[in-house]
Design a protein that fits this description.
The chain has about 290 residues and is of the alpha+beta class. Helix content is about 35%, strand content about 25%.
Length: about 290
């Protein structure tokens, strides 16, 4: 009798995992913390570290910054995502009542033009450094394939060794006035999604940023980015900009590598005062 009951429980669990969890949004599955203690998006301890002292820090800012701006941030910034849908559930923090548009391709055009003017220089530096495998981090996808990244800035920290190998690209990025320099949400890196590879649906850490993907080597065929259910296709010398607090995924179902430059920028709906405040709140801790 015990064995029959045990078998029934195992069978029930199989159907829950096989059909119910598979049918739910992948963001539910991917919201589980990853093992890395250094990942701002996934580490519970890092999230607690930054969220615990936001209140006291904001109190001290009333005499330093515009009081109304500080007050509005106090009212709108939350670390509790329990009431949010799985289509938009940032893993660290959320600023309420800011922007509900996931796509920003037609905004911040001057930044895109600045990047695109240096397309040849960036691509040349990538070609020179692509064979230095010790500089690249590699992630194997659960669904197969792999993803390679070469960080110039990783969660607000400048990776000096990599930047020396791409000096013109580094100078360009650091010259952008809305690049999230020195902030835990700020990254700049070369991303290579290898052939027949898929990055599963997930949400970024916050809606304080817009992520820019600049196409450097885009294969012909089924190579796309999906944000909030809408699919876009890359092209060489083209920038795709989106709010990655929305559920998003990437796929490269071709036989060639997809190479893009990824840069995190302050959200265009933030004021200059708000950017200064958030820059201090979420500055990298050394």
């Amino acid at each position: 009798m015990i064995w029959v009951l045990a078998g029934g429980v195992l069978l029930l669990w199989y159907f829950i995992v096989r059909y119910y969890l598979k049918g739910t949004s992948s963001s539910y599955i991917l919201s589980n913390l990853c093992p890395s203690p250094d990942c701002v998006s996934c580490s519970g301890s890092l999230k607690s570290l930054y969220s615990s002292d936001v209140g006291p820090k904001l109190k001290k800012m009333y005499g330093k910054y515009d009081s109304l701006a500080v007050h509005k941030i106090e009212e709108r910034l939350t670390f509790d995502m329990s009431a949010m849908t799985e289509k938009r559930r940032p893993t660290v923090c959320y600023l309420r009542d800011m922007c509900s548009d996931p796509w920003h391709n037609h905004k911040q055009k001057y930044l895109q033009d600045t990047l695109l003017d240096s397309y040849s220089a960036i691509k040349s530096e990538v070609a020179n450094i692509i064979s230095e495998q010790e500089l690249w981090s590699v992630s194997d996808m659960q669904s197969g394939g792999s993803w390679q990244k070469l960080f110039l800035h990783n969660q607000g920290r400048k990776i000096e060794r990599n930047c020396k190998g791409m000096p013109r690209t580094t100078a360009l990025i650091e010259g952008l006035d809305t690049f999230m320099s020195g902030v835990i949400f700020g990254n700049a890196y070369i991303s290579i999604l290898n052939e027949q590879s898929v990055i599963e649906p997930h949400c970024g850490p916050t809606n304080l940023r817009v992520r820019c993907h600049m196409g450097l080597q885009i294969p012909q065929g089924d190579c796309s980015l999906t944000v909030n259910g809408k699919q876009e296709h890359w092209a060489n010398q083209e920038c795709i900009m989106f709010d990655d607090s929305f559920l998003h995924s990437s796929s490269n179902n071709t036989d060639s590598q997809r190479i893009v430059l990824i840069v995190d920028l302050w959200h265009p709906n933030l004021t200059i005062a708000e950017i200064k405040i958030f820059g201090e709140l979420f500055a990298v801790r050394h």
